[in-house]
């Protein structure tokens, strides 16, 4: 009998029988096969019983009609409605009515393991039938696509019910079973015949998207990561919108979950292709894929993608890469102010200060950009590092304060701190003493105002307060702030220990200073001990412990060499540290050469200088150490040439200016005004250099045209500065 004739004969009775069947299932009555078997082509089902009573007596007609239509569809395809399908329909009905517990009770009556194996076999067989005809020996027909969709939907609704009841781990396990079933049945991905079933594809989309969320709720981050990777690597035939949503959620999870993900184990991988090694790299890869999708107009622009990418690239030290990504964005996607701000921060992070400052200048020049406080503060910070731009930086900080209008004390505190730093920098370049003292007083006033505006104490402000007081030789106040800073940071900052040790050394408390450094060394990892060891060596030199200083420098150089090798070549994250290592190593060789020179160990000093030359052939400090070596040997002309070479490399190198003046004075080959010029230039650049003041006093004393009072003032300044001089510059 054809389906058309069968429907004509029995179709009018199907709705009534289905209605009766579902009514019996809800009421808990036994469904009798006699009622369903009035002919040889009757509806086939199995006896069953339901162990609970329905909470709602009334039935929504629209919902029940949809379920009956679903049953009719199954009947038309297979000719019968089995036990699992009947439970799937009833469970869906209860779920749609909001009876989650009742729906879960119905779904639990379905043998999921048995159903999964049937679905797996049916899907595998359907896939095989695309290539060859079904064998005549196949007696058991495969399940219809409608039945497969119905049962998978039942499992998915069970997952949603478990989720609604807070049983997240059980929900995740059930959801995983859906994906396991499909993946094991179709290991090569969904063929067109399967993916064309809209309902099945919709269930898969929802299951793939839901599984990682369930694992997160269950507190299993590693399982969530595996689920995300599975969603993206297996061919689920997801639409672009769903895939992009999963990629973004996965990237966010990798960045902020605090869980370390192991590198993905890819089943198929092109040779030399990039495999992310950690969370950050994997998140960056996902976000770059999303940017490419936007570039080819597959997805709409989502500004949060750029926010997350900015964070990921910044923490991995890839600011230049971030700048390139921003520059590649089409015009109009990002506002001009936002684009310029991000680019300026990127180049500032890369050390390209002038590029960053020029970008900010272009932005701040336009008065149509109101409320640019952040940009003004960044510009002010950059200017503080460049003597040429100090005046400009002060104007930016003042403008930021005027735009704040007292709205945010925290931002005002930052602006005051920057202005204090800028005024301090400016004070070191002014000509007159009165103006210098005025600028220094203003600088301290600004820093104290910044401290008062903070809700909680800011270590940066305390540090600069201590530093500025130390520079002005207010050592008691400087020591007070330095101790406060160390307590505030709980000894976590190397620079705080070094500043405290330098202040103590300026008070000639060398033993206390060395104890501070030793404490810092005990609490600091080997890789961060470089500056501490150099300070310790200088403290030992100040105490006349030259042999101990040589051992300390040797230890320092050994640590630097091991650390340089461990950083490896080509790692952008380590490039700033490698530069710092190179600079520290070079200065250590120079210091060690000077120690050997003072011990008259010429050969050892020469070896140290040759080591330094391999690091940087053009170093003013190296030429100066070379000049000191020649001077110690009594080779004054060679020493003079070395000092001049240092000044050719760095015209404002203060030690070379002073040493040149000393050699010229001893040789007597130059006039007093020329020698005085070298010394006054040195004092102009560093007013706290006691050696320059002392030698200027000697020059005035030897010059008949100069007054004794001038010489006395120079000697007095030299004595005061020497008594309060640290073993190395406070800055």
Automatic annotation (TrEMBL):
<dbReference type="InterPro" id="IPR019734">
    <property type="entry name" value="TPR_rpt"/>
</dbReference>
<keyword id="KW-0802">TPR repeat</keyword>
<dbReference type="Pfam" id="PF13432">
    <property type="entry name" value="TPR_16"/>
</dbReference>
<feature type="repeat" description="TPR">
    <location>
        <begin position="620"/>
        <end position="653"/>
    </location>
</feature>
<protein>
    <submittedName>
        <fullName>PROTEIN NPG1</fullName>
    </submittedName>
</protein>
<dbReference type="Pfam" id="PF13181">
    <property type="entry name" value="TPR_8"/>
</dbReference>
<dbReference type="InterPro" id="IPR043376">
    <property type="entry name" value="NPG1-like"/>
</dbReference>
<dbReference type="InterPro" id="IPR011990">
    <property type="entry name" value="TPR-like_helical_dom_sf"/>
</dbReference>
């Amino acid at each position: 009998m054809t389906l058309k004739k069968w429907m004509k004969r029995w179709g009018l009775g199907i709705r009534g029988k289905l209605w009766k069947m579902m009514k019996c299932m809800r009421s808990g009555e036994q469904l009798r096969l006699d009622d369903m078997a009035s002919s040889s082509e009757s509806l086939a089902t199995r006896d069953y019983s339901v162990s609970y009573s329905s909470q709602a007596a009334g039935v929504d007609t629209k919902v029940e009609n949809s379920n009956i239509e679903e049953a009719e569809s199954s009947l038309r395809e297979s000719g019968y409605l089995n036990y699992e399908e009947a439970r799937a329909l009833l469970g869906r009905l209860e779920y749609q009515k909001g009876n989650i517990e009742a729906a879960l009770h119905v779904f639990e009556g379905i043998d999921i393991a048995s159903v999964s194996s049937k679905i797996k076999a049916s899907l595998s067989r359907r896939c095989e039938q695309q290539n060859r005809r079904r064998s005549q020996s196949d007696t058991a027909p495969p399940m219809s696509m409608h039945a497969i969709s119905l049962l998978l939907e039942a499992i998915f609704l069970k997952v949603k019910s478990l989720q609604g009841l807070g049983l997240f781990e059980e929900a995740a396990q059930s959801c995983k079973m859906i994906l396991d079933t499909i993946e094991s049945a179709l290991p090569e991905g969904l063929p067109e015949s399967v993916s064309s079933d809209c309902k099945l594809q919709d269930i898969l989309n929802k299951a793939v998207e839901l599984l990682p969320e369930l694992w997160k709720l269950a507190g299993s981050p590693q399982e969530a990561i595996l689920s995300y990777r599975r969603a993206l690597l297996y061919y689920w035939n997801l639409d672009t919108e769903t895939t992009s949503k999963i990629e973004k959620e996965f990237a966010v999870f990798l960045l902020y979950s605090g869980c370390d993900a192991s590198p993905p184990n890819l089943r198929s991988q092109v040779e030399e292709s990039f495999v992310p090694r950690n969370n950050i790299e994997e998140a960056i890869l996902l976000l770059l894929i999303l940017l490419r999708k936007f570039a080819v107009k597959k997805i709409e622009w989502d500004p949060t993608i750029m926010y997350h990418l900015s964070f990921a690239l910044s923490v991995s030290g890839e600011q230049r890469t971030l700048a390139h990504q921003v520059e590649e964005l089409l015009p109009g996607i990002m506002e001009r102010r936002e684009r310029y701000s991000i680019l300026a921060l990127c180049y500032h992070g890369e050390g390209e200060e002038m590029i960053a400052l020029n970008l900010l200048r272009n932005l701040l020049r336009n008065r149509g950009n109101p409320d640019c406080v952040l940009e003004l503060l960044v510009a002010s910070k950059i200017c503080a590092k460049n003597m040429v731009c100090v005046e400009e930086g002060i104007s930016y900080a003042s403008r930021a304060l005027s735009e704040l209008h007292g709205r945010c004390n925290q931002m005002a505190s930052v602006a005051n701190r920057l202005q204090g730093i800028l005024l301090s920098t400016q004070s070191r370049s002014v000509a007159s003493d009165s103006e210098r003292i005025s600028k220094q007083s203003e600088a301290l006033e600004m820093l104290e105002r910044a401290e008062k505006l903070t809700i909680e104490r800011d270590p940066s402000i305390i540090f600069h307060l201590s530093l500025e007081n130390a520079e002005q030789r207010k050592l008691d106040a400087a020591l007070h702030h330095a101790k406060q800073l160390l307590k505030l940071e709980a000894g976590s900052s190397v620079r705080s220990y070094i500043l405290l040790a330098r202040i103590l050394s300026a008070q000639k408390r060398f033993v206390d200073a060395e104890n501070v450094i030793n404490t810092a060394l005990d609490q600091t990892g080997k890789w961060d001990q470089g500056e501490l060891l150099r300070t310790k060596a200088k403290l030992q030199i100040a105490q006349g412990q030259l042999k101990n200083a040589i051992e300390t420098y040797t230890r320092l150089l050994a640590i630097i060499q091991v650390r340089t090798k461990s950083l490896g070549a080509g790692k952008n994250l380590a490039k700033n540290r490698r530069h710092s290592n190179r600079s520290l190593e070079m200065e250590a060789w120079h210091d060690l050469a000077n120690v050997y020179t003072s011990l008259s160990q010429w050969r050892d000093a020469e070896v140290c200088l040759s080591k330094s030359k391999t690091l940087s052939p053009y170093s003013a400090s190296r030429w100066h150490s070379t000049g000191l070596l020649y001077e110690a040997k009594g080779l004054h002309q060679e020493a003079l040439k070395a000092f001049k070479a240092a000044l050719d490399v760095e015209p404002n190198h203060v030690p070379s200016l002073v040493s040149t003046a000393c050699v010229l004075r001893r040789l007597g080959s130059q006039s007093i005004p020329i020698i005085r010029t070298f010394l006054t230039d040195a004092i102009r650049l560093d007013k706290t250099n006691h050696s320059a003041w002392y030698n200027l006093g000697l020059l005035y004393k030897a010059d008949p045209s100069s007054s004794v009072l001038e010489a006395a003032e120079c000697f007095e300044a030299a004595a005061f500065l020497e008594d309060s001089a640290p073993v190395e510059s406070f800055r």
